[in-house]
Amino acid sequence: MASPLTLATRAAANHRGGPRPFTSPTTPMTPAGPYSPSPASAVPLLRLNTAATGGRGAEHRSDWKPERRHWLIMITLSFISFVVSLDATILVTALPEISRSLYGSSADSFWTGTSYLLTCAVFQPVIAAASHCFGRKRQLVLSLVLFTFGTALCAVAYNFTIMLIGRCVQGIGGGGIIAMTQVIFCDMIPLRQQPRYFSIVLASWSIGSIIGPVVGGSLVQTSTWRWCFHINFPFCIVGLVATEFFIRDSDFAFEARPRRMDWLGALLFVGGLTSFLVGISWGGTQYPWTSAATLAPTIIGALGCVAFVVWQVHIKPDSLLPMSLFGNASAIAAFYCALVNGFLYSALYYVPFYLMSVRGASPVRAGIDLFPAVCLLVPGSVIVAILTSHLGHFRWAIWLGLVIANVGCGLFILFDERTAKVVFAVALAVFGVGNGMVLTGVNVGTQAIAKAEDRPMAACMYGFMRSLGMPIGVALAGAIFQNAMSSALSESGLPTGIALDSERFLFVLQAMPKEDPRKATILACYSKGFRQVFITMTVISATALLASSAIRRFKMDAVLPVTTGSRLRS
């Protein structure tokens, strides 16, 4: 009797109007047993070919090599990932100037960064699920268009309302780009080889993160902050053209698309999670934690998230997210590590802020001083990628990376007005290496733990959890910084309103003479606020290290699923 894989391949060939040869009739095996397409994916969307899968046993070989078309796709995805990462950090050193120019408060500056991170995280699983219905390319193009449109809104913004709308639209597009990059790599490359080739994307992402703060600071000092958005347009246009030429659309029948997408599940997921994140972001910064303005969206959002889980488990199982992704302790621990890895991203916001306030650095100098962290993140990621591909195991990278990252966070606690530059550089370097190792280790681990047919969504869920940790980290750090600084100001007999407007107050602080005794006191209050942020980061990082002990050993030799929602054609 023909195996499920053979039947699926024949169905794909008949759907396109004729039989096509297939080199391996062997039924692929997963840890759960033979794989057969689920009813939701009865029409195969990925044309299996020996170039992508390597034929029989490709996943167990170490000599898989990409073809020219694979290289073009990887370069395209790396290029647009660079644009997204550049945009994620370019405003770090420009926020005080944007706040001054648009007459915004510290809360407005906070939401300029958080709104992007929030929408970027929330929409990733939805766009990934939609790509199973409408094809990978359509969702990637849509994400690029949304990112470009959001950039245009931000570039012409004359108040913070338009700025925040633009940042939200940018975030949706950026989240879609991240999700589709992860999913397409899963479609295309065997898991054992993924770390090696995905390191190209990680390197592009890291380069964007490295130069973002420096470029943003340079543009603010030499021109206008609006160029932080204008600079994206050439990259967006080239990315759209490259996507059109090098990434082919899926073969999915148009009539079936609207019926396959779980729109109600998507609404529950996006609405519930957004409301919850907005509530916890407001708590302790714009409104007290016990106020109705904080509790109402938090509770409504939590109920929405519970409703989504009930919908996914009991009413329409796995229609948006496969619940099997969270089916064991190893998976839950790995996704928590991804969440914490994103949480530590708040360092990219608060370390430059520390430099510009406590150390009096210029925006450009603050960006340059970040180099030890972001420059060493790339080697950490690449070395782990090579070693995990060679060894076929990943746990060591997560454990060692979290230990090193935890040491880096602990060194941040030493930062004050008199910290030596060498201590600062060493702390950032250690932090960068550790996070680079975790970045690759957890990415590979979440996929190795998942079943073969769930691997594209596991990759997307990794990106989602990491992106979700970013707004949570920035929001929690913002509340902790503001409360700690307010307390320090109150004890010193100074107005606590300085903490509420801490970013715009930098311009007042810079104008104060060094001889003014209030300046030293205010700087000490800033320093106490940052210290509490770094203590929190260290504690959260330690919880991830403890959780990682629950991750069992999984091999990285697995079989590419036939049905993944997209057909990458040569």
Fold and architecture overview:
The chain has 24 helices and two strands. With 570 residues, the chain is mostly helical. The chain has three domains: 47 residues, no CATH class; 387 residues, MFS general substrate transporter like domains (Growth Hormone, Chain: A, Up-down Bundle), CATH 1.20.1250.20; 57 residues. It is globular and about 65 Å long. 56% of the residues are buried.
Structural class: mainly alpha
Q: Under the CATH scheme, which class of the largest domain?
A: Mainly Alpha
| CATH architecture annotation of the largest domain | Up-down Bundle
CATH topology value of the largest domain: Growth Hormone, Chain: A
Looking at the chains present, what oligomeric state does this protein adopt? single chain
CATH superfamily of the largest domain: MFS general substrate transporter like domains
Helix content: over 70%
Residue stretches low in confidence (pLDDT < 50, at least 5 long) are: 1-61, 251-258, 559-570
End-to-end Cα distance: 31 Å
* Number of helical segments with 4 or more residues: 24
Q: Compute the number of structural domains.
A: 3
Subcellular location: Membrane
Membrane topology: Multi-pass membrane protein
Organism: Ophiobolus disseminans
Region (Disordered): 12-38
Features of this protein?
single chain, 570 residues, mainly alpha, Growth Hormone, Chain: A, 3 domains, globular, MFS_dom, transmembrane transporter activity, transmembrane
